[in-house]
Design brief:
Blueprint (H helix, E strand, L loop, with lengths): L12 E5 L3 H4 L1 H14 L2 E5 L12 E3 L6 H14 L5 H7 E2 L1 H8 L4 H8 L3 H13 L3 E5 L1 H4 L4 H14 L10 E3 L6 H6 L6 E2 L3 E2 L3 H11 L11 H10 L4 E5 L3 H4 L3 H9 L3 E6 L11 E4 L8 E4 L4 E5 L12 H11 L9 H11 L16 E2 L23 E2 L18 E6 L15 H6 L4 E4 L1 H7 L6 E5 L4 E8 L7 E5 L12 E4 L6 E2 L3 E7 L1
Parallel strand pairs: 1-2, 1-5, 2-3, 4-15, 5-6, 9-10, 10-11, 16-20, 17-19
Antiparallel strand pairs: 7-8, 12-13, 13-14, 16-23, 17-20, 18-19, 18-23, 21-22
Length: 526
């Protein structure tokens, strides 16, 4: 996030798009609702589903799935054509504005309505409301990124925020809501194939030399593979062994029949996890690891806040902290990792990671610090880009709308989108073992619009089949207007009704994220 969680409550306008906030991020969802009800904050929701936040919204734009770029370009078309953009900010802090202006010129409200289904007058109202707000905050999540145009979606959002001067101010920003508790921390620590910790490029010789000296090893300047590329390489035989840690791809990856076939071709598969997941059941070796409550360390949350976690209970059986397993394994393979504690590892992190440089266990004993925090007397950074962007001037990207990889047809007339529900988390590895969530939401449901249900003779609670070009699943129907006519929605928490048997593995060409949010399916009674 460029800004902080507390700023959601103290801003003039929130634009929430691609985020079912109250179910996926309920604490932030609570703050958004409180901002609207208690502080008079305006709320714009852009989402194909009638999520809970729609009840609090001043304007709801219900676009067709996969048409986000057209909608954002349409908003900017109105703002520029009516002279509502932040002219001084654009002139002094950005570049490439003319290219953006020329690109969005054709995205008139009427043109966007033909693409997205959003009424032209609603688009105009939303554009004016956003542009006239003194401070406007954009929140988004995987509803925006899990498309073949996911990178373009984020770029157009950044365009909109810069166009109205909303980056580098308190209460503004572009704020991705991270889907798991330490996703931000994993990325910060180099859990991406092209960077070292703190996003230092592996191709950068100076950065690489620094880590080679610290780690006493020779490091490759060539970026590694992304998750989906790894699966493809396993299928082709280019990768012979795979070490999977805290991930359950046999439920969470798209086109599961293909994923299973790819994993079966490996010579060796090791899974390190806290439970025997569907993926672990396929493994040659399972390494039992400790849960968050059974180890010490730090998490970095969605607002860049580095926080202490402390061991509350002993780990069961032979389970060890992840760092202990990795250290022992590396040492036995001939590379000594002689760490004595999580704190010692954190001290190494801060010595090599400039944005973490001023953070110590002592400083975050009671309350976390937000990076960048480069020195021991730095108080952390509440919001980014206050006076200038990291690259100097903010760069507008002229982005054209492209349709989803898969469209409906006579055989597959419905659009399927996937996501989460309030009571479960990811592949259900933890929440489905907990009595409360399992009672509240015991089985997978398919959201179907009542109009479509009546047309197909499907009643509420009836078993239905969904088929795509890749597979078939059965689940119970839930008739609801949350999903528009012609669309259906399923969560991916239940392995016995694994929606990812249906989903499309087509990737965003830059981010390499699969298109989970748009998939053509047929629907019928089971």
């Amino acid at each position: 996030m460029t800004n902080s969680i507390e700023e959601f409550e103290f801003t003039d306008l929130i634009l929430a798009t691609g985020t079912n906030t109250t179910e996926n991020h309920p604490i932030i969802g609570m703050k958004i609702k409180r901002a609207v009800r208690q502080h008079g904050t305006k709320l714009i929701v852009i989402d194909p589903r009638e999520i809970d936040l729609v009840k609090y919204a001043d304007i709801w734009l219900r676009q067709k799935p996969g048409t986000d770029v057209a909608v954002f370009n349409g908003l900017m078309n109105v703002i520029i054509s009516e002279g509502l953009y932040a002219k001084v900010y654009v002139a002094e802090r950005t570049e490439n504005f003319e290219a953006l202006k020329n690109t969005v010129e054709k995205y008139t409200p009427e043109y966007v309505e033909k693409i997205s289904g959003v009424p032209a007058e609603d688009l105009q109202r939303a554009a004016r409301l956003y542009a006239k707000a003194k401070r406007a905050n954009i929140a988004y999540a995987m509803g925006l990124t899990q498309h073949i145009s996911g990178t373009d979606n984020v770029k157009t959002m950044a365009n909109l925020a810069m166009l109205c001067g909303n980056i580098g101010i308190e209460g503004g920003g572009v704020n991705p809501l991270r889907g798991q508790n330490n996703v931000q921390g994993a990325c910060d620590m180099g859990g991406l194939p092209n960077v070292f910790p703190a996003y230092q490029q592996v191709a950068n010789e100076e950065a690489r030399k620094k880590f080679e000296t610290a780690w006493k090893a020779t490091l490759s300047p060539k970026p590694g593979l992304t998750l989906m590329e790894i699966m493809q390489a396993a299928g082709s035989g280019a990768i012979k062994a795979l070490y999977i840690m805290g991930e359950n791809p046999l439920v969470s990856d798209p086109d599961l029949h293909h994923v299973r076939a790819e994993l079966q071709k490996l010579d060796l598969m090791i899974v390190q996890d806290i439970f025997l997941t569907e993926t672990a059941q396929m493994a040659d070796v399972v390494l039992p690891s400790a849960s968050f409550a059974e180890k010490d360390g730090t998490f970095t949350n969605t607002e860049r806040r580095v926080q202490r976690i402390r061991k509350a209970v002993p780990a069961p059986g032979q389970a060890k902290a992840d760092w202990e397993i990795i250290s022992e394994l590396a040492s036995r393979m001939g590379y000594p990792m002689e760490y004595s504690s999580a704190q010692q590892i954190f001290e190494e992190i801060t010595s090599l990671t400039p944005s973490y440089g001023g953070i110590t266990y002592r400083r975050i004993e009671r309350e976390g610090l937000q990076w960048p925090c480069p020195t021991s007397d730095h108080r952390g950074t509440k919001f980014l880009h206050k006076d200038r962007f990291t690259r100097g001037r903010g760069l507008f990207h002229a982005v054209e709308y492209i349709p989803p990889a898969e469209n409906t047809c006579e055989e597959y007339p419905f659009i399927l989108s996937t996501g989460r529900v309030l009571y479960h988390y990811h592949t259900g590895t933890m929440t489905r073992r907990a009595k409360g969530p399992a009672q509240r939401y015991p089985e997978c449901l398919v959201e179907i619009n009542p109009f479509d249900g009546a047309k197909l003779g499907i009643s509420d609670g009836q078993a239905v089949k969904l088929k795509s070009r890749r597979g078939m699943v059965e689940a119970k129907a839930k008739l609801t207007t949350k999903s528009a006519a012609g669309t259906v929605f399923m969560n991916f928490h239940f392995a016995e009704a694994a929606v990812n048997q249906l989903t499309n593995p087509a990737l965003d060409p830059i981010g390499k994220i699969p298109e989970y949010k748009v998939c053509a399916v047929k629907l019928e009674k089971a």
